[in-house]
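User: I'm writing a short report section on ligand binding and want a predicted complex to refer to. Could you take this sequence and flavin-adenine dinucleotide and write out the structure as tokens? A short remark afterwards would be nice.
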Amino acid sequence: MTPVELVAPATETEALEELARGPAGSRAIVAGGTDLLFDLQGARPGPTHLVSLRRLPWRTHAWEAGGLRVGATEPLRTLEADPRLGQELPALAQAIAAVGSPALRRQATLGGNLGRSAPASDLAPALLALDAEVELVGRAGARRMSVDRFLRSSRSTALLAGELVRSVRLPEARPRSAYLWQRVRPANDISQIGLAVAFAPSPGLWRVALGGVPPRPVLAPDAARELAGDRPAAREIASAAERLAAHPALVSDRRATEEHRRRLAAVLCTRAIRTAVGEPRDPP
Ligand SMILES: Cc1cc2nc3c(=O)[nH]c(=O)nc-3n(C[C@H](O)[C@H](O)[C@H](O)COP(=O)(O)OP(=O)(O)OC[C@H]3O[C@@H](n4cnc5c(N)ncnc54)[C@H](O)[C@@H]3O)c2cc1C
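Assistant: Sure. The structure tokens for the complex follow:
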């Protein structure tokens, strides 16, 4: 392996200056490194410098103006230790708990999960359903956009060269939300499907998002349209599940067949809405 220099700037300005140095492709950003170090194996030509974000003052979160702002480099394990997360944004708490193991979550970050833009990300569907925004920063300044606009395709995002994800913002508490997933081997596999639902009190609408589907997690507005009010009726939930099962993103790949995914989507949709509203998942 070619020797790589590790650089760890202490400020945002230094980090952005470091990213602007050298020829294109010479600098790779590293946060927790759980994806990047794996991805770099065999990369030709690889970067000459790894720009670590560990020393930046972004390893924290704050509850502000009714919502939550998470620093891009805060370890998932620190975030999930906040008891308010499970009460106010259960879908995000459940999605974080689904990522790998506690040891992995001590390293892994929200910024890295979004930066990688993996189809099977457990965090992306929860962030989509919770209407999250990313805050990006580059030498030209900062900008914000929805996670839906940020995620383009597998390993492709709206980040421009030299830009960083600085934080992720969740606009408000959404206690009626849930994230469920299905894997072949629950302990050490990635999700065949992930399903997030969230009720936004104002304007009183549900958002439904699917993960584990190529090329990226997606919103399912057709399914959400069937759900009315903060406690949808059984027939509305059944109709949402049926519409979700027809979503065009549910296709076959090496992890699951289309037919299996469509069945799972319908079952998880019903269970997730029931979980979100505090009803038994499988009523008698
Ligand atoms: C064994 C194992 C199990 C896993 N299980 C799961 C799972 O169950 N569910 C799941 O969703 N994921 C899983 N992952 C994937 C991974 O752990 C997560 O995606 C993690 O959140 C990535 O965060 P990180 O800080 O380690 O990212 P890094 O590896 O540091 O970076 C990932 C990518 O994002 C870029 N990046 C990082 N931070 C920023 C930033 N602030 N701004 C711009 N770009 C940035 C990097 O350049 C790189 O391209 C697993 C990984 C492993 C190795």
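A remark for your report: The chain has three domains: 5-52, 61-170, 177-276. The two ends are 59 Å apart (CA to CA).
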